[in-house]
Amino acid sequence: MTGSSSLASPLCTWLVAACMTVTCSKESKHALSPPSSAASNRSRRRKAATAAALKCNSNSKYNNYSSGMSGAGSSLQGLMSSCLAFEPCSHYYASNGLLRSNRKLRRLHPPALSGQAMAVAVQPTKEVETKKKPHTKQKRVVVTGMGVVSPLGHEIDVFYNNLLEGVSGISQIEAFECAQFPTRIAGEIKSISTDGWVSPKLARRMDKFMLYMLIAGKKALADGGISEDVMDGLNKTKCGVLIGSAMGGMKVFNDAIEALRISYKKVNPFSVPFATTNMGSAMLAMDLGWMGPNYSISTACATGNFCILNAANHIIRGEADVMLCGGSDSAIIPIGLGGFVACRALSQRNDDPTKASRPWDMNRDGFVMGEGAGVLLLEELEHAKKRGANIYAEFLGGSFTCDAYHMTEPRPDGAGVILCIEKALAQSGVSKEDVNYINAHATSTPAGDLKEYQALMHCFGHNSGLRVNSTKSMIGHLLGASGAVEAIAAVQAIKTGWVHPNINLENPEQGMDTSVLVGPKKERLDIKAALSNSFGFGGHNSSIIFAPFK
């Protein structure tokens, strides 16, 4: 402890002297006296303050503080804390003839002065403060891999080919008995193999949203050519995971509640960690050894887009070279279905499931729940080039806004969505005229579809050759995973030159210009810039933009 005290004492002495010199100079009654007199006064005070500080340094108050710490670093931190809350001791006041009552001392030397003096003592010079960083060219972000788990398949090509053929993934719910519910259909994943992706023991324990996330994440790595050899060469401190979820582990948490009805001893010890939305990203990072940015975002059905844009920003800021990002959800369980039924948000077209999700159609009666995961592998351009990665598209940017209007209903004037699109264009450096493909949020709800369409026409109504479609017409609404899965559809449209149809659009809403909507068959399109929208309960708006890599 002697060594630590000797290390900290000179610093404390200097801080005490500096603090008291500034404090006393502010309180001097001779501030306007001639320079020679002021200099003399300051010199005398500085000497007196230093002498007093040396006495203060031996004060038992600080010695007692230091003796309770272990090591020089802890002692230094303790003394720094003491100095920051510094009030001069009696030795100082005695040396200046200022030994007074405690009440007068507090009035003459309020605690705020100490903090102010401390700020002066450590304030950098003006030259350092105003020095600007050299201008550097913004890093570019590209898509080098994708992974999907969906009602239309778990391989990218299978998934997108089904979309191009207009295949519907909506069917009767089979996971549980739902005869008592007014809605009995969903975009349900009937089966999925975990072989080679997740260990059987872990697969049995974790919630499906996490299972889908891990599988889609590893598929994105495989699609991006991240083999074991490539993985060994990555700087893992600059590889991150940002995959979110709107609902989290609802099944795991619901099972824990049922177990609790019997006894707390029956509760699964994994129920809390496996229910949280961040644990999927964490588990994937643990599996890969990736030590870069790692967290999840939950903004309801806008989650996927939020995660993609934030992941890209980590790369742009130089905090990561590679990011796995997207969303995952699996809420097709009794409490999930019941909750959305209670919101009166779901379609009840149970007798004809494949016709239930029908964005922009006059006979739409609500959205259809879906489940799955979408993960994109984003990479800094030069990093991708260096390893010879296959680049699918470039991520140009995006934006977020909030409607600040209603929990579930869109703003009547569409101002939040319009602002979000305009900010996304500005941030991406893309003109309105260059956007010729839009993968809309369009969920098949009466209000939401129309308000988004009106916002799109406000922004892009004069664009010739504009094509708009909704992936949800075939897979339903994948909640927090929807943005990521639809981003994959947008990238695939860029890659293949084909945009998928809108199915079930038999009687378009009155007043809509159907010429901008993709018809019942796939269409060829040379995409210049593709915009993908996602909106969520709470008024969360998000727009992201992709373009062919050039």
Automatic annotation (TrEMBL):
Keywords: Acyltransferase, Fatty acid biosynthesis, Fatty acid metabolism, Lipid biosynthesis, Lipid metabolism, Signal, Transferase. Residues 31-41 have a biased composition (Low complexity). Its EC number is 2.3.1.41. One of its GO terms (cellular component) is chloroplast stroma. Residues 29-49 are annotated as: Disordered. Belongs to the thiolase-like superfamily. Beta-ketoacyl-ACP synthases family. This is beta-ketoacyl-[acyl-carrier-protein] synthase I.
